Every structure is written in C-alpha cells, then in structure tokens.
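Need tokens for this chain, all 309 residues.
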Amino acid sequence: MDIKFKSQFPFYEVWYGKLNIDTQRAFWFRYTLLHGQHQESALWALFFDQDKITYQKKSFILENIRLSSDEIHLPQGKLTHSLCKGELPHIKWTLSYKNRGGSFDPIPPLLKLLHLTQSHTHTPMIDLEFSGTIEVENNIHTFQKARGMIGHVWGKKQAHAWAWAHCNHFKESQDIIFEGLSGEIQIFKKTLKPLTSLYLKWNGKEYYFNTLMHLFKTSSSYGYGFWNFTATHPEIILEGKIKSLPQNIAQVQYTDTDGSTLYCYNSKKANLELTLCNRKNHQKMTLHAEHTAALEWVTRTPMMERSRL
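Here are the structure tokens for all 309 residues:
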C-alpha cells in the first residue's frame, strides 16, 4: 500500500476513494491517520443518494491503525489491494475492486526535490471497477462494476487550499478518464496563486499537464460548487468547467497537523464539461459527464465567514 508513515512528527496520511453507482448514487470513503497537535486514526464515509447525503466519521486512537504493504487496518474497516470494508453506525460497505490500469502524479519531480511542498499526493489507481454492497440506514445498495478510483495523500502539513476533480463516467465513452488538482501552497508564509496539474485519457491516448510549466501557466479559478480551467498541451488545448448543485455538496472538516481546521465542500455528483481543441486543425470535441464527476474545494475559511467578508 506504499505506506509513508514511519512515526514522523508532524505527519498525516490519507487513503481515499470514490465511486459512482449511477447518476443518482455515489460513495466516498477515507482511511486516515493524523500525528500532529491532535492525534488519531479515522474511518470516513459519504453516501450521495439523489438529493440526500449521509455522512459518518469514526475516530480511534492513532495506535489503532495497523499498516503493512498489503493492508490498512482500522478497528471497523480495512483497505487492501483488492478489497475495502467499513462499518459505521449508518453506513456499512464491503467492496471488491478491479484495477483497469493507469496512475497520475500531479507534482513535478523538481518541486519534490526542492521540498517546496509539505504535502504530497498520488493517484495509484485512477480507474477502478467496484462491486459489492453498501448499506445506508438499512437500505442496501448492491452493484457491479461501478467506476471509481483510489488516491493517496501524505505529508507534514496540508496545502493551504485546493480544488480536486475526477471522473471516469462520461456520456461519450467509458474509456475517458480525467483528474485534476489545483492547489495553493505557502512559501515563506506567502500564499502562491493556484498551481494546477491535469490528466486526461481520451481516444486511447494519455495527456499529461503536470510539468512545472503547466503548474504555473494553466489558468484556474475555483470556489463553492465550481472549478474552471484552461491548459495547453503540444497537441491540444483543454478547457474545463465543473459545477455542482448546492444540494449535492457536503461540508466535511479536516484537522491539519498544526491543529488548524480545513473545510472541504465535497460533491460526487458534479457536472463536468471538457472541450478539447486540436492545435493543428483547430477541430473541437466536447465531452460531458452529468452528475458523475467528483469535485472538492478545500479552504481555510468556512462559507459562513466568507459571506461576512
């Protein structure tokens, strides 16, 4: 499982995943550890069913998480190379998954080499098929081959703010995959403009927008329920618009290693529109995902305080 935690302090590590059963139902899960001012391990879950969202989190002492190359184990859940399970009071899941291949590393090697970011992220399994059962408040959802992913985040401190999106459930084809990350990091207590890294698999080809130049040149604007971006590749120009309705957004709070709070506005039922423009012949193609894209916006200021600014 590529465990990074070796008792470092401060440190946090997250394994997370999501899947879309259909356009009405989606699921998000997390297995986490926090070794900072506050210490814990935790199991998290969100289930989206039409306009209803069910959220659960169970915290344990840090020592209750058991880590190995084959398994992440919590008292009420586990994640392996082919299985994820969890049992919370209102959400229970037993899922197997099959890896369809592919991964994405949004951080350029130079940034890692220079230690310019205290947080690292990698998507080792960008395209999965989940099968199994999720029970939500005594309602059982059984399904086969629901598309999703599993990601991994770790470091000394979380980024200042970010937007993240993923989709492998497009109307045009089941072979299209998109993932993007746009984050604000602090260097010498100064917050940089959003640095953006993107990935697209389309028509059997992979397009990476994750070089150091892409991070600084890709335009990106995001906020509550939206993210817009434009990126350039030697072959294509990629424009993206992601939106989520308020009733499909859950607010989840994270605790950073220094004890500060982050607010995650989390949707797994967003709409995504990608426009690809061929740089040679200027032909355009638009790809659509309706209520099957993941969109998360994480900020240090809650919406209530922002409305007073």
